[in-house]
Amino acid sequence: MEVQRGQWSSKMGFILAAAGSAIGLGNIWRFPYVVGENGGAAFVLLYLIFVVVIGLPYMFAELALGRFVQRNPVGAIEAIRPGSLWKGVGYLGVFTGVGILSFYGVVAGWTFGYIFKLMLGVVGDFASFIADPWLVIFLFAFFIALTASIVHGGVEGGIEKWAKILMPVLFVLLIGLIVYANSLPGSGEGLVFYLNPDFSKLTGKIALEALGQAFFSLSLGMGLMITYGSYLSKKENIISSALYIGFFDTLIAIMAGLIIFPALFAMGASPNEGPALVFVVLPDLFLQMPGGAVVGVFFFILLSVAALTSTISLLEVQVAFLVDEKKLNRKMIVWPAAGFTLLIGIPSALSQGSVDFFTNFGLIPERLCAPDFLSQMSFLFGTFSLAFGALMLSIFIGWVWGADKATEEILQGSPSFQKTHKIWAFMIRYFIPIIIFILLLNIFGIFN
Length: 448
Ligand code: TRP
Hints:
Layout: H1 11-22, H2 25-37, H3 41-69, H4 73-80, H5 87-120, H6 126-130, H7 133-153, H8 158-182, H9 188-195, H10 204-217, H11 224-229, H12 238-266, H13 277-288, H14 292-325, H15 330-349, H16 356-359, H17 373-411, H18 421-440
Bound molecules: tryptophan (TRP).
């Protein structure tokens, strides 16, 4: 009955895959634009607090559950509490993966397209690029196909090796760009916007957005870390692994902001560009900098690779579910699963000016997010569903499975957790669910 499951070949392999999942467009595309939309530094500070007091302790819980049960999110819940309604939380996680991948893949397609735009040296206007329906759908489909072919062929060999080489290159490139952007006249104001908090700007909606972004960036709230934890050996240290992942993920996001905001203010543009922000600011920066065209091509290649390690993880959750629970053949279901996600993503691809209905979709009220279908998906799945999923999963792990069982699991491989497990149990059972619950009340406009 037991199906032979894979395992990470080493601790490094796991950390790279999980960090590869976490680091992606969320850090370099989504983080700067939500910071811009939500007023700057106060949001950044709140985001950092949420990463430390909610994201990281919550990540321990997902990893522990995954390693304990060795299953996808649905199977994990079923193994602990068979036949209960809790299973719905697992399904929600799997579906959230589809929802995120459906709009994330569209943006990954834009990123890929920009490699060629910069290569040819004709960047043109971003707004008209994303309003070109066939081009955008083609790039989106291409990126999803690339993701599917890697998930189909096995993750360990190719992509891990490339990621290992290319991610440090991205890091160095970001440092270079920070130095350059901050040397531009007028960039100082950008730093003030980014780093000098004005707390009078904080609202309940902004706090929810900061929490959602913390979950999104760390790949939490939908069981991805349950899935990746399920391939983890008992010898590995869950605590230190999670701390590495959280540290690098947060560092890359902060670095992206240190490029975007100084450059943006130096160009006299507005931080309120929404999803277009990095695509408008960065190419301009590259085109005016000496040798910038080459740097730009390089940058968008690296960003595409970062996005690819994230799209792989998003597709992997669906695939792990279908393989474990439906006993389907991995190689056979990868392409249909990717095709399904592609279909769901078409409205997002068409929502940036090409089709009016999707551009002004507006089902979710304006006070919560922009009306275009892509932004609505991003809010529904990338913010709300992750926060809600994390609320349910922290209750499930803290109370149903039990914080003491989770603690036992974490202690294997992390003996020093002995010193802090009481605080952690309090956080996973009370602090984390209560804070998330309060922030979710915003959806109903109870306070803002
Ligand atoms: N964390 C990724 C990013 O920042 C996106 C992502 C990949 C994700 N897998 C996830 C988000 C799982 C939530 C859940 O780009």
